[in-house]
Every structure is written in structure tokens, then in C-alpha cells.
User: Fold Translation initiation factor IF-2, mitochondrial from Aureobasidium namibiae CBS 147.97.
Amino acid sequence: EFVSVSKLAQLTNVTYQEMADKMEELGFENTSHDHILGSEEAGLIAMEYNFDPTMGAQDEAEAEERDLKALPEPAPEDKEFLPVRPPVVAIMGHVDHGKTTILDYLRKSSIAASEHGGITQHIGAFSVALSSGKTITFLDTPGHAAFLEMRKRGATVTDIIILVVAADDSVKPQTIEAIKHAQSAHVPIIVAVNKIDKEEANVDRVKQDLARHGVEIEDFGGDTQVVPVSGKTGQGIDELEDAAVTLSEILDHRADTEGQVEGWVIEATTKSNGRVATVLVRRGTLKPGTIIVAGKTWTRVRSLRNEAGVVQMSAGPGTPIEVDGWRDQPEAGDEVIQAPNEQKAADVVDFRAELAERIRMAEDMEKINAQRREQQVQRDMTKEAAAAEKAAERAARASGTEVEATATRKPALGNDDNETPGHQFVPFIIKADVSGSVEAVSAYLLQMTNPLCSPKLLRASVGPVSEFDIEHADAAGGHIIAFNLPHDPDNSGRAERKGIKLLEQNVIYRIVDDVRAVLEEKLPPQK
Ligand code: GDP
Assistant:
């Protein structure tokens, strides 16, 4: 489910430049025409244009209703009045350097564990309360890297990375990978030099190796803190937590506890109480009854549970909480946004599903187009096809009504090469609103075929259906597809009198049904 910037511009009927400007406004860094967007990003951008793939023209009021855009972030000068929130910390490092051991040690001091006899379940994240009264939230999921990727698109999931490096093994390939990830995503690092209880431990060597790989550690005049620890004995873990709190204070992590809830799905699964997902709240306060949308599903929150399975009455920014009641399973990484009511939530989910479908189809069409172009290059036009083309051009010139120009016309004529005895070709003329539609409808048409009958593209061009189109279709024994064009009752009448089907359509995939019906008429009756 990916689409290029220029393709999305085409789908939403705006120029590439307009699209690029809008994207910049929305905070996208890369707006080049061939930059590939995920369906979620594409959906967000498309919603800016109230783009609905199922309708040609859309009621503006309804579009506004559907728009569940996030509230604007407070300006920096207002931010200082917001409450402080816990930092969200991810642990990364080379395999066997002690990530799991350190997380296990930290988890034992989780808030939920201390409240509830020490049993915590894995829900993807947990919060640790420090003696200072501060809290740190640790991500506990194998998909850390995915959350870093999200950060790249301007989304803040991970505030700090703790890079675990074993003191007896020093910097290894996955250590370097983690450093690169952190740097490219602009997430600050704290280094935990682990296994210092071991005899072979050499903390200085680790520091030197890190410096060589671009980590500006404090000892050498940089600002990256390095904390020697042992996940096994617990030595240094308090200092590690303090380092995270200090860094969070410097970075001044704050968030609004009021207003529209936003967050991320950290993990999703099915339990005895149905579909559940761990939501990490980014802003606002999640409560039972809150309606939230995530990806292509939504829930009216029935209950909130912490990592000990204990029911909570609310969860604010920086807090991971398990949420139930999902209509479908959300996915880790999905963005969570509050909806004002169930109808809006359902609408947004429908909209996203349709958009994803539309993008998938656009991609299919793109592939088909590319294949056709490829075939065309490899195939010489037969004399007959060339002659037919000349004749059509002469006819068009004689009528003087339009100048046609489209890349999809030639491959269509190539269809004739496949002609087998008894196989019929039904000619179609395509008229559409913009060149993107012409190409899309052409590609769609040409992939439809049945054992006895295939569509053949007579002509395809931008513009309203003209009298000449009807004459031409009539002469060729064909039909006309009018995509995304205003209904013209005169044309309908004229076409009907001549026995020509004028297929007026605003939804691209419904053309399939229309054309199939026309082709099926050509099939011999079932015996
Ligand atoms: P991960 O792959 O990074 O999650 O590493 P693990 O947490 O699974 O640890 C790998 C191995 O190192 C295990 O056998 C741990 O018991 C051991 N280990 C982890 N931390 C320490 C430590 O601080 N000291 C010692 N001696 N062993 C450790």
C-alpha cells in the first residue's frame, strides 16, 4: 500500500506543486515527485483535500465532519505551561549484550508490579516510578526499530534510546546499526555499558570504540552520558534511570493532559476479554468511554488496564495502557486519534479502507500500464493496425472536434495480435476528466477479458463525450465510457437511439462491472 507523491496528486486531482506545498505545510520533509508514501501518510494528506474515492463530488459539510485532524500542537511559548510527562525510552544494542536482562531488572520495579504483588505481563511497554517521584516509560517490544522509523516521518514515539553495549564485547554490528538509527531519527542516546560485573569488562575500550563510531560521549567533551551497569547484579541501574530523567528534563518533555486524545498502538493481541491493544498516550487523557480510531479499526473504550492487568480509570501522556473493545485488530505502529462519536469513528475507518483499496488499484493499474508499454516496445505494429490507426486519425481530423493524445491507445491496437478464431473484440471509446483518469480507465479496461471476448480501445482522451464520439462508436459497433464527467442527457438519448452503451461512471472499479456486463452480452447463451 504505497503511492508516489505525483500519483497521489493525480488521484486527488491537484497539481504536483500544490501537493508538495501542502505536504510541506504538514511537515513532510521529502516532497519530491517520486517519493513513496505509505497508505497512512497518503490518507492523511488526501484527507486534507477531503478526497473520497467513492464519490465524484462530495458534500463539503460532510467532508468537514469526517475530518478528524489532530488539534494543532501548542506553540513553543505555550508549551512551558503544560504538565511534564514521562519520557518514552527504547532499549537497543547488539544481540546478547543484555537488553532483555536490563529490561527484566527494570520491569521488576515497574509501578504496576509494586502496586500488585510483583506480577507484570508483557504488554509492550511499562512505567517505572523512581524514588524522586519521576516516572520513565520503557518500550518493551521487539519492533523498536519500527518506532524509530515512525519518528523519521515526524512522529514522536521514542524520546530516548538506551544503547546497551557489553563491556566484554564492545561495539558490534548491531551496536553500529542502532547508533545510525538513532542519529538518522534524531533521537538522543544514553549508553549503558553492561556486564561490568565480569572480569573481562573493559569500559574504556567501549568508550573509545563508541567515539570512533561518532558517539560524542561526555568523557571526551560530548553530551552523551555513559553509565556502567550490570543487568545481572543491578549495579548502576539507578544511575541509568537518573540519566534518563536528567536528559528528559533537559529535553523538556511536556504534553497537554486535556483535549483530544492522541497516541500510538504499541502492541495488539487477542485475550479472554477480546481484542486488546496497548496504547501509548501522547496527549490528552484516555478514559473508559473514550472513542478512538487506530488505523482501520476503532473502539469505545470499555476498560483500561495497566501492565499488571489492574483496571485504571484514566491514562495520561507517556502512559502505556491496554485498551479493549476493538471492532477489528489494530496494528503496532498505528496512530491513535480520538473521535467525537461512534459514527465519526466508523466513517473514518471506512474512508481509510476505501482509500487503501483505491491506492492498491492505482498501483495495479500502474503495473498493467508498465507491462503494456513493455509489450508495445517489443512488438511491431502489424500493417493492418497501422492502417486502422491512420483511418481513425483521418476521421478525427475530418470531424475537427478534438485532438486526441494518449499513450494507451497504441497498446490497445496491439490486442489484435492475439486474435484467435472466434474471439471477439468489443471496441470502447474512453472519455474522462483528466489525463490520469484516461490512463487509469484505459489500463483497467484492457486487463478485462473473457475466453470469448475482450475489450478493445478505440480511442481514449480527455474531455466531454462529443457527437463525433457517438458517431465513431456507432460506426465501429462499440460503446463509450465516460469517467468523472458531468451527466449529459442529450448524449444519453443519442447513444441509446443508436444502440450504444454510454457508461457514465465516477467510481473506477465499478467500470469493471459495467464493461463485464457488456462483454457478457456477446457470449453465447448458456446451454
Ligand atoms: P539480549 O540479547 O541483548 O537481550 O541479551 P540478554 O539479556 O539475553 O543477555 C545475554 C546473556 O548475557 C544472558 O546469558 C545473560 O544472562 C547475560 N547477561 C546479561 N547481562 C549481564 C550482566 O550484566 N552480567 C553478566 N555477567 N551477564 C549478563
Notes: Residues 57 and 169 are 63 Å apart (CA to CA). Confidence is low (pLDDT under 50) at residues 53-66, 401-419. The two ends are 43 Å apart (CA to CA). The longest helix spans residues 342-378.
